[in-house]
Amino acid sequence: MASSAALDHGLSAFAEHRWTDAFNALTEADGEGELGGANLERLSTAALLLGREDLGVDYATRAHEAFLDAGDAAGAARSAAWIGMYLLGQGDLARSGGWLARANRIAESGHGAESVAGLLRIPAGLGALYAGDAETAARAFDEAFAIGDRLRDRDAMALAHLGLGQARIMLGQTDDGLSLLDEVMVAITAGEVSPITSGIVYCSVIGSCHLAFDVRRALEWTIALDRWCGARPDMVMFSGQCQAHRAELYRLHGAWADALESARVAADRVRHGDWTGAWGAWYQQAEVHRLRGEIDAAEKAYLRAAESGYPPQPGLALLRLAQGNARLARSMIRQAAEEADPATRRQWLPAAAEIELAAGDVEAARRAADEMTEGMPRDAKPLLRAVTALCDGAVRLAEGNPRGALSSLRTAWACWQELEAPYEAARCRVLTARAWRALGDEASTSMELDAARAAFLELGAAPDVAAVDALSRRGPSAAVGPLTPREVEIVRLVAAGKSNRAVAGELYLSEKTVERHLSNIFSKLGITSRTAATAYAYEHALV
Q1: Fold of domain 376-472
Q2: pTM higher than 0.90 for the full model?
Q3: Alpha carbon of 272 to those of 4, 45, 46, 51, 390: distances in Å?
Q4: Minimal CB count within 10 Å: which of 1, 102, 366, 507?
């Protein structure tokens, strides 16, 4: 038998989620005497959570064999099912199929293994879900939940509700799907399920919230996942995916440097064993590089994302568009959209419309915009309303309907402002400027372009700054003296007699941000008053 001191220490550390201590102590106990199936399962879990994948699968295999030797059919079927599902998640279909077949054979033999029946329905649901057959997946997950509920298998119940929620979102039953995801999260936060199931649910729920355009739910559960990972600092598995989710939210909210840093941390966690975060780690880096105009860096990051087995779309198609290859961009996005499930396809439609417009196919862009609009619920989430209205506004403008475009773009801009998404809000302003120009209103055109340019400058969106300059029919203006372009804008408005509140309103900043900028301006210019700032503005022809 294993050393009781080492085993007791390992079990205590495992219960307290101290994975490194648990792994070391249980490994010591295993070296001093053969561990039983249940404790080998714990050792496997600790190894997997620490990113030691090969050891984790080896210990799970030993646990399976120990259960068989002990005549514990339920334990043997359960461990075989988990190995099969783990390998399925990695895309190792041959080995996964073998283990799942073994688990089913043991379960069907009786001897108490029927208790694993609910868990064994999960892979069938996942297979249908990955194949885009949401109806078949929903039926499989329904069966899994019913069996798990009857047998009180909380892991099976949690995974079944997760899969059912995802299937309903794919079927367009977004609110029902999100309600199921909220329900399963209650079980997770209450600590009712195993650690690996908890991590799977956390990360999958956040991804599903993004698919459903529910950015506020995604933020709420990302914060919860961050806390969960933070309470387990030595955990590798799921920590990379957590950082990738953070990067996506940072990018949306205009904190691009923070997004890049989180994505790089995610990539580091992937290198240490969290393969679940591979796609997001590289895709989010690529997106920031693309928006900044760092083409080579974006190209490399998109290709690294593709190595995970998931397509780096729609970002890679948009990169091809930025490189001037509209034909290739259109071919890529069309193929990707045709192969995607309905929820993912809807995510890609705005990019598809943008690319079709750039390629000169207004009719195809209109079809994409209409597909976005069709079936959109009246109480759609702000993000869905924002992308749909922006897409419709861009197409209306291309169709020669600037007045109609303005209506859609106002809706889009208001939603992006509500979501605190400065880059997308600035893109709305550029399209709005083009609509005003088509209507002959150059004053409104200039106002919108100036506001958009200031936002793009602050974000570091160099390609968009250049595009605005081209629309403004001027070259980029140099900063005056020591002042940044944003500080020049503020000095101009102060010289025009505007209060901090008025400046904040016109530039869509907070009053505190304006105060900070003014403090920097005074320090740079060696002045102490708004009057002196006004004099500086006139002396340097800023007004």
Answers
A1: 1.25.40
A2: no
A3: 31, 16, 15, 6, 40
A4: 1
